[in-house]
Amino acid sequence: MAKNHQTLLKNIHIGQKALFTFNTFLKKTNYKQYFILCDQNTLKHCLPLLLANCPTLKKADIFEIESGESSKSLEVATQIWQCLIDQNAGKDTLIINLGGGVVCDLGAFCASVYKRGIDFVNVPTSLLAMADASVGSKTALDLNGIKNIIGTFYDAKAVFIDPIFLFTLPNREIKNGLAEMVKMALIGNKALWQTLNNANTSLDEKIIQQAVQIKSKIVLKDPFDKGIRQALNYGHSIGHAIEALYSDNKFPILHGEAVVMGMIIENHIAHQKKLLNKTSLLEVNNYLIQNFKPKPIALSDIEKCIAYLQHDKKNKGNKLKFSLLNKIGQCKIQVEVNASQIKKALLYYTKEVK
Ligand SMILES: NC(=O)c1ccc[n+]([C@@H]2O[C@H](COP(=O)([O-])OP(=O)(O)OC[C@H]3O[C@@H](n4cnc5c(N)ncnc54)[C@H](O)[C@@H]3O)[C@@H](O)[C@H]2O)c1
Fold this sequence. Notes:
Elements: H1 5-10, E1 12-14, H2 18-28, E2 33-39, H3 40-45, H4 47-53, E3 61-65, H5 74-86, E4 93-99, H6 101-113, E5 119-124, H7 127-133, E6 141-143, E7 146-150, E8 158-161, H8 171-188, H9 190-197, H10 205-221, H11 236-245, H12 255-272, H13 278-292, H14 302-310, E9 320-327, E10 330-337, H15 339-352
Parallel strand pairs: 1-8, 2-3, 2-4, 4-5, 5-8
Antiparallel strand pairs: 6-7, 9-10
Helix pairs in contact: 5-6, 6-7, 7-8, 7-10, 8-9, 8-10, 8-12, 11-12, 11-14, 12-13, 12-15
This protein binds nicotinamide-adenine-dinucleotide.
């Protein structure tokens, strides 16, 4: 685990020179084998850019997975390990995760346990992975429909974040990542919130950098998720329930979209609990509703949502504990919440979002 914020940030390279820096990293290090993990989309849109900037990687083995959350599975991980065995991969192999959060989580997990740990780097290509998933040493797989239930804490050797990859990212996926950046701002940086809240702001590397800074600061204070890191779960307790609720749909909801809905609902709970004042509640929720156009929730889904929450792995005992805003830029963790407060907030949501 990195020793301080500067050390942590030193290994994270953000900006238009990130791929150039990655090439220098490859020249300076002594890996004998390279193994690039990508999905169908990043193979097509991102791999050519990576290879053009990092010629050393032209001899790399490429492993392609299907795009989407379903690849974060033990079955796909097993295929990756088998491929590593077939290629005689060892401690002198570098895994390069070229993709969104799915590729980063999966590749990092595979690296963390193969031969008790081999090196990997993240080259995130989705906004969500750039601002969030590629940073912070959590690796993960899903099992039997339970998200991120299998995982390890394992540091990337380095992270190379080049916004050039965003040119091919669909707009819906940009919003998906923006949702996590807004979350980051709301829990940790009021100035970033004000920037994002400004209609004239365009997404650039400075904004990504600020989101990464907020996350890495929190991670550094609590690398193993025992305390303050739970602030990153703001919007996620309800968000995960919504994600699960709509996962069987023909058009499943994206993680960031569910988190937006989660933030709106959880803000109302925070207001009920006298943590978030009315002005801030309106400021944040109006922004979220106008900019993200969240999906309505049917009245008939409210009870299902509450039932799901009872199974949320983050809750201890029978008590529901959420991370809630107590003001813009600040989050309070482990706030006890009851079913009636959740119901009230869900009802509020159904009235606000039609
Ligand atoms: N480890 C962590 O700390 C952490 C934090 C947040 C989220 N996550 C995980 O991240 C995952 C979600 O990440 P995501 O939203 O990036 O999903 P994703 O990896 O599925 O990527 C979203 C879509 O965008 C495509 N894509 C990615 N980059 C592209 C590009 N440059 N051009 C065109 N298409 C591109 C992908 O193929 C995919 O279809 C979830 O599994 C979540 O659990 C992990």
